[in-house]
């Protein structure tokens, strides 16, 4: 079969991204324009600002992706684009741009689920990886344990009932004065802290479910900070960060390993921004080693929001002839 060159676009949150990907695995270019500096001023992503910044950046980012890949629009076989979940105004910028391109080039438009994109980052990193495997998707907006049975075929085994893992990292970081985005900062400062200094709670559900809850641990940290502030005692930020991180990583590791053992799966792939976390990588690798389970991670650049992962997911959807109509709408609450 002739190779398929996909131009992919991602604009679901605060990164405007475009990439050129061949056959779902080979990345010719992966351009990301981050809006992080502007949102940092507000302590988090401001949706209206995000949409405006996407509009300013998208043309430049797509042109750069084509140039870096050494291709022209005439070489493109399909346009892949994230249509959900995400911020509706942000999604619409990428989606409308992609529709215009697909229509004018007369090539298929492929609508991609952002969460599926995160999972597919692993196909780029690990060229021989094939389903089935268990995937832990942990980002600023999502926390899922997914059994990926085949390409594009998912069973959700567990998900968060409140905050996403990355959201908890960001909120705790803000509370202990580390700023936004909190995940990488907690990861870094935790290396100097004692992770057993405080015991923050892990949520366990009594219904045997492998769901998560991170609002309890987040509240426990906030209560601890308030108490220390009231009594005037000094807060050891590194200890708080490390103890919080341990509580989150322990429950993520436990539930993912449980999923593998109960379903007899011997491969785990991690995805999403929190997959960059060094403690999570270490903990899962160690737990996997003890049980003969292989644990795979994408490089950090493929963990965070990017369009290469969207190009990979689009390829597998294209193979299934899952082509989107040109009136496809953005779906802010799209599920896997
Ligand atoms: O996947 P992503 O870039 O965007 C979403 O789709 O949400 O994930 C961003 C999230 C943020 O919450 C950020 O704090 C978190 O990933 N993150 C981390 C680390 N790097 C990024 N969390 C923990 N440790 C890290 N090293
Ligand atoms: Zn994401």
From TrEMBL:
Its EC number is 2.3.1.234. It catalyses: L-threonylcarbamoyladenylate + adenosine(37) in tRNA = N(6)-L-threonylcarbamoyladenosine(37) in tRNA + AMP + H(+). It is found in: Cytoplasm. Its main location: cytoplasm. The keyword Acyltransferase applies. Its cofactor is Fe(2+). GO terms for molecular function: iron ion binding; tRNA N(6)-L-threonylcarbamoyladenine synthase activity. It comes from the Bacteria. GO terms for biological process: tRNA threonylcarbamoyladenosine modification. Binds 1 Fe(2+) ion per subunit. Residues 26-311 form the Gcp-like domain. It is an enzyme of class 2 (transferase). Substrate binds at residues 137-141, 170, 183, 187, 277. Keywords: Acyltransferase, Cytoplasm, Iron, Metal-binding, Transferase, tRNA processing. InterPro entries: ATPase_NBD, Gcp-like_dom, KAE1/TsaD, Peptidase_M22_CS, TsaD. One of its GO terms (cellular component) is cytoplasm. Fe cation binds at residues 114, 118, 305. Belongs to the KAE1 / TsaD family. PANTHER family: TRNA N6-ADENOSINE THREONYLCARBAMOYLTRANSFERASE (PTHR11735), TRNA N6-ADENOSINE THREONYLCARBAMOYLTRANSFERASE, MITOCHONDRIAL (PTHR11735:SF6). Required for the formation of a threonylcarbamoyl group on adenosine at position 37 (t(6)A37) in tRNAs that read codons beginning with adenine. Is involved in the transfer of the threonylcarbamoyl moiety of threonylcarbamoyl-AMP (TC-AMP) to the N6 group of A37, together with TsaE and TsaB. TsaD likely plays a direct catalytic role in this reaction. This is tRNA N6-adenosine threonylcarbamoyltransferase. It comes from Inconstantimicrobium porci.
């Amino acid at each position: 079969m002739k190779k398929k060159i996909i131009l992919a676009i991602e604009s679901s949150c605060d990164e405007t991204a475009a990439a050129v990907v061949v056959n779902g695995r080979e990345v010719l270019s992966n351009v990301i324009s981050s809006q992080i500096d502007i949102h940092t001023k507000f302590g988090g992503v401001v949706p209206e600002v995000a949409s405006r910044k996407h509009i300013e950046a998208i043309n430049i980012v797509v042109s750069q992706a084509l140039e870096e890949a050494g291709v022209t629009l005439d070489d493109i076989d399909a346009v892949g684009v994230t249509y959900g979940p995400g911020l509706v105004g942000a999604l619409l910028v990428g989606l409308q741009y992609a529709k215009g391109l697909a229509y004018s080039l007369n090539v298929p438009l492929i609508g991609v689920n952002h969460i599926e994109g995160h999972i597919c980052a692993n196909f780029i990193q690990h060229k021989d990886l094939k389903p089935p495997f268990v995937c832990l998707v942990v980002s600023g907006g999502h926390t899922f344990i997914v059994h990926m049975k085949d390409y594009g075929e998912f069973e959700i085994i567990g998900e968060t009932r409140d905050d996403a893992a990355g959201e908890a990292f960001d909120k705790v970081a803000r509370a202990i004065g580390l700023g936004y985005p909190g995940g990488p900062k907690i990861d870094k400062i935790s290396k100097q802290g004692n992770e057993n200094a405080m015991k923050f709670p892990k949520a366990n559900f009594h219904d045997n479910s492998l769901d998560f809850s991170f609002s309890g641990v987040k509240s426990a940290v906030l209560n601890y900070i308030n108490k220390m502030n009231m009594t005037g005692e000094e807060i050891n930020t590194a200890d708080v960060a490390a103890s919080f991180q341990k509580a989150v990583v322990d429950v993520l590791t436990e539930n993912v390993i449980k999923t593998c053992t109960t379903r007899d799966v011997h491969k785990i792939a991690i995805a999403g921004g929190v997959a960059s976390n060094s403690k999570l990588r270490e903990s899962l690798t160690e737990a996997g080693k003890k049980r003969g389970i292989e644990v795979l991670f994408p490089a950090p650049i493929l963990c965070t929001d990017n369009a290469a992962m969207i190009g990979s997911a689009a390829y597998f959807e294209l193979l299934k002839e899952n082509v989107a109509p040109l009136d496809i709408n953005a779906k802010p609450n799209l599920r896997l």
